[in-house]
Design a protein that fits this description.
Layout lengths: L4 H12 L3 H19 L6 E5 L5 H7 L4 E6 L2 H10 L5 E5 L12 E7 L7 H13 L1 E12 L5 H11 L6 H6 L3 H6 L3 E9 L4 E8 L1
Parallel strand pairs: 1-2, 1-4, 2-3, 4-5
Antiparallel strand pairs: 5-7, 6-7
Helix pairs in contact: 2-3
């Protein structure tokens, strides 16, 4: 792993944790869109990686799906647990590059705004671990930043996001994420652009 990646993440998100309930208010629209775009079958087991304060996990959980939300930040998870009103949603501290679940356990694996916080080598490990714990023909959902169309819009987006994101963002946005994912063997099933193309939802299937 590059540098002190896990430590960087924990310190950063522990520091920002108190502000995340405000972030969740603005992100509610995309959480709902992710649910509808995913279209989980009944009784699906869902893994929410880099769950933070649980916004996406709750969106699945309030519809009675069994959800496990994992994160490296204990401070984030304290907020998620405090907000949790659902017996079918559980939060656990875990390293996404070494998931504590058996092979082919979940029907759906989801990660929202987590990959851009990782160096490339960690990102690939996390994707492989998510694939490992997802059942064959299971769904694989990624939500993260994408470069919007248009040079001016792309320039403004990139320099604005760099003001508040980690040092890994620049590396992430210049990487061909779809190529990286498809090299892991997942089957591409479509995408949906959000916020004028600055955010994208990718949907894949484990084959």
């Amino acid at each position: 792993m590059k540098g002190d990646y896990p430590g960087d993440v924990q310190r950063s998100f522990n520091r920002w944790a108190p502000l995340y309930p405000i972030v969740d208010l603005f992100a509610r629209g995309i959480r709902v869109k992710v649910f509808h775009f995913t279209s989980p079958r009944k009784k699906a087991k869902i893994l929410d990686v880099c769950t933070g304060t649980g916004g996406q996990a709750f969106e699945f959980g309030r519809r009675s799906f069994e959800v496990r939300g994992i994160d490296l930040s204990e401070d984030m998870l304290k907020i998620a647990r405090r907000k949790n009103r659902y017996a079918n949603v559980r939060f656990e501290i875990a390293d996404a590059s070494n998931l504590p679940y058996k092979d082919n356990y979940f029907d759906i694996s989801c990660i929202s705004f987590g990959l851009h916080e990782m160096p490339n080598d960690v990102r690939e490990k996390v994707l492989k671990e998510m694939i490992r714990v997802t059942k064959p023909q299971g769904k694989f959902i990624i939500v993260d930043y994408a470069s919007p169309k248009g040079k001016i819009r792309d320039f403004l987006f990139y320099h604005f996001v760099r003001l508040y994101e980690s040092r890994y963002f620049s590396e992430f946005i210049k990487t061909d994420l779809q190529d990286t994912i498809e090299r892991t063997g997942l089957k591409f099933n479509g995408f949906y652009d959000w916020a004028f193309g600055c955010v994208r939802i990718w949907k894949y299937e484990k084959v």
